[in-house]
Write a structure and sequence with these properties.
The chain is an alpha/beta fold and 308 residues long. It contains 12 helices and 8 strands. Strand 5, helix 7 and strand 6 form a beta-alpha-beta unit. Helix 2 runs parallel beside helix 3. The chain is globular, with a radius of gyration of 21 Å. Bound molecules: pyridoxal-5'-phosphate.
């Protein structure tokens, strides 16, 4: 319902909210999670209080506020918001989706593996490319394939897990390239705001899986990821937000370098819609051609361009 994969994780968190009898549903969000918590709480008749960092895309705030939660904008980064929510969860009996309900919330991302296996005719892909913020989705996609293998639903196979980050917030990519196990926190500076998590909770697990499966971690600049948003729109008719641009930008970079082969069955996860982050592309797209409502004006201004 809220146009990102966060509906999946929130659906599972919501089941825990009901089971434990919480009355306030909350989260620390880079935007999409706030949308999903607010919408699902509205439907469930719960109070929602969502915490966001300052400077989010306008549409992400509007598309959250419409469900009438309490939206709290914290003067700081997402990492500040997350730290505050940890303290709130310790002191108050609130259900905070990605903090004290994280074990439930995180399992919801496994459906991203289950559905891919189903759509491929009950097999895992050779490789996945996944945009990484906290790293939860990446880790749980792997767990989803693993569980299906263990149950005998799909054949056993190593899925190469490729993590995609924005260069302006790429602490895991930096650690991967430096061949260290330490993911050092960074101060995010990227248009991929949904991935702007400087201290990723699951960073060490992402690094380990990317290395063990041979998938690797790669990053792209803001220019490259915005270009990739346009490439996906112009070739597949899909308009994604910058997180999806990070996926496609990394896919493009690795394919061009020969690191992803043309025969590999590769699934690129596009996890959010472009309409919520128009700022990323609005100044780059061509303005409409303005004409008078006459055939002459059409023939003068449009026909030649359209190749008629
Ligand atoms: C659209 C989108 N893609 C990817 C991510 C990253 O997910 P994770 O924090 O589980 O790594 C987010 C996180 O907010 C997101 O909103």
């Amino acid at each position: 319902p809220t146009w990102s994969f966060k509906d999946r994780v929130v659906a599972v968190a919501l089941a825990a909210v009901k089971r434990f009898g919480f009355t306030v549903f909350s989260c620390a969000s880079t935007g999409n999670l706030a949308n999903a918590v607010a919408a699902h709480a509205a439907k469930a008749g719960l109070r929602a209080v969502v915490f966001i960092p300052k400077g989010l895309e306008r549409a992400k705030v509007v598309t959250t506020s419409v469900y009438r939660p309490t939206v709290v904008e914290v003067e700081g980064t997402y990492d500040d918001v997350n730290r505050l929510c940890l303290e709130i969860g310790d002191e108050h009996r609130w259900a905070i989706a990605n903090v004290n309900l994280r074990p439930y919330y995180s399992e919801g991302a496994k459906t991203l593996a289950f559905e891919v296996a189903e759509q491929l005719g009950w097999r895992a892909p050779d490789r996945v490319v996944v945009p990484v913020g906290s790293g939860n989705m990446f880790v749980k996609i792997h767990k989803g394939f693993e569980e299906f293998e263990r149950l005998g639903v799909i054949p056993r196979q190593t899925v190469r897990m490729t993590a995609a980050q924005a260069e302006g917030c790429g602490p895991i990519a930096t650690a991967y390239k430096a061949k260290t196990d330490k993911v050092l926190p960074v101060r995010p500076n990227t248009v991929a705001k949904s991935l702007a998590i400087g201290a990723p909770a699951d960073g060490a697990y992402v690094l380990d899986l990317a290395r063990r499966t041979g998938g690797g971690v790669e990053s792209v600049t803001d220019d490259e990821l915005v270009d990739a948003v346009r490439l996906l729109a112009q070739t597949e008719g899909l308009f994604t937000e910058p997180a999806g641009g990070v996926t496609i930008g990394v896919l493009r970079k690795l394919a061009a370098a020969g690191a992803i082969g043309p025969d590999e069955v590769t699934v690129a996860y596009i996890t959010g819609i472009g309409l919520k982050a128009l700022e990323a592309v609005e100044e780059l797209v061509e303005a409409p051609i303005r004409i008078k409502p006459t055939l002459a004006s059409f023939e003068e201004r449009v026909l030649a361009l359209a190749g008629g």
